[in-house]
Amino acid sequence: MAGRRAEQSLPKAILEKSSLRGLEYAWHPDDIPEVIEAARVAGLKSLGGQLQFRLPDATCEIYWIEVDQFGTEVDPDEAARRTLAQFHAIYSKDSWFREGRTFPAVREYEKAGGNLNAAMCFVWYLER
Which domain of life is it from (predicted)? Predict the structure, then answer.
C-alpha cells in the first residue's frame, strides 16, 4: 500500500481520538498507552513523540519532553515495551502544564477561558 501512513492501520476508535495537523497525528496523553498497544497489535513499531499544545491558532511544541526510540532496531513488541516505559517515566500533567505556560500563546489561550487539558497532546510516530 504505497503512500499509506502507518497510523491509518490503527483501529478507527483510536484514530477518532487523534488530531491531525500537517502530517502529525497526536493524542491526549491519557490515550498514549492505548495508542502504543493498538500499534503493537497492528504490527506497528512505536517510535515515540513529543508534547504539544494544539491551540486554535497555534501549535506550541515542547520538544524536550519526549519519548525517543528512533533508529532502534527492535520489533513492535519490544518497541511498545520501551516506549510505554519511557512515557510512564516522564508523564506529569502538572509539570507539562507549567511547561506549556512558558509560551505566551498558551497563557493567552488559558486566560481567554481555553481548556489546557483539552489542548495538551502528545504527537506519536509509528512505522511499519
Answer: Bacteria
b/e code 1-19 from CB counts within 10 Å (16+ = b)? eeeeebbebbeeebbeebe
Maximum Cα interatomic distance, the chain, rounded to a whole number of Å: 46
What is the SS3 assignment for 16?
coil
Q: Bin 115: left if φ > 0, else alpha if -120 < ψ < 50, else beta.
A: beta
Please tell me the predicted confidence (pLDDT) of residue 1. Answer: 39
Mean pLDDT by 10 residues, the chain (128 residues): 75 97 96 98 96 97 94 90 97 97 98 98 96
> Bridge-partner residues for 59, per DSSP?
54
| All domains in the chain, ordered by first residue | 6-127 (3.30.190)
